[in-house]
């Protein structure tokens, strides 16, 4: 099943974003021949209560869960995040998204380790998938030059090595990262259970360079739609000259393994 691993629904507070409802995102998927999107809620970045954002996402995609797979936003620095996590997993949300800069913590903080420990012990994905639910970490959601002046959010320090070393069975998805991050974290990505989506790759043959850096089996399609135009991610695949086998790995096999690993 062709999959876009980095999509969003809901209301973005600083500008109008087209196709940010379920029907609009489905139209984008159909236009580009994508069968499934992993979707989170824009509101999760800004609500103090992430649980409310997650419940709103579930309401928005009701009846469309096979194509719009919901990911929960969890803020481990917020009181009672454990309740948000338990509620999200019980509702069938397939992964967790972390936005450290928006929620006021660092990857090295104790609250992140506590979240990963909770996933390791109780965050299973249901029958047949005994491992922990996947965790997406967002380095950057918006280019700093485009931030609203009341919401200047720095990129996340991607100090990933200690987390991966301590949680070898934990699947991670790196979102909003550029090629230099892949180069700096190449050994950690290759030896851990870490995947890298392509929405912020820049330059000629960026996907090809990424594959050469971290391996084909760690690369997945991510468009950051509808905040970014979905066409951009698909153009990156085309201009990098991927073979049919490579496209199948990026679009189908790697996302499937990420959720089932």
Model description:
This protein has 261 residues and is an alpha/beta fold. The chain has one domain: TIM Barrel (Alpha-Beta Barrel). It has 11 helices and 8 strands. It has helices at residues 22-31, 50-61, 81-90, 100-103, 110-122, 161-166, 179-184, 186-191, 206-214, 230-239, 244-260; strands spanning 3-9, 36-41, 68-73, 95-98, 134-138, 172-175, 194-197, 219-220. An 8-stranded parallel beta sheet has the order 1-2-3-4-5-6-7-8. α2 packs parallel to α3. The longest helix is centred in the last third of the chain and has 17 residues, at 244-260. The protein is globular.
Strand content range: 5-15%
Radius of gyration computed on alpha carbons: 17 Å
- Mean pLDDT figure: 94
Give the count of helical stretches: 11
Secondary structure category? alpha/beta
Strand order within the widest beta sheet: 1-2-3-4-5-6-7-8
Largest sheet: 8 strands, parallel
- What's the assembly state of these chains? single chain
Unreliably modeled segments: none
Shape: globular
- The name of the CATH superfamily reads Metal-dependent hydrolases
The end-to-end span amounts to 16 Å
Please give the number of β-strands.
8
Taken in chain order, the helices and strands follow as: EHEHEHEHHEHEHHEHEHH
What is the annotated CATH architecture?
Alpha-Beta Barrel
**What is the CATH topology descriptor?**
TIM Barrel
Number of domains: 1
Percentage of helical residues?
25-40%
Return the CATH class: Alpha Beta
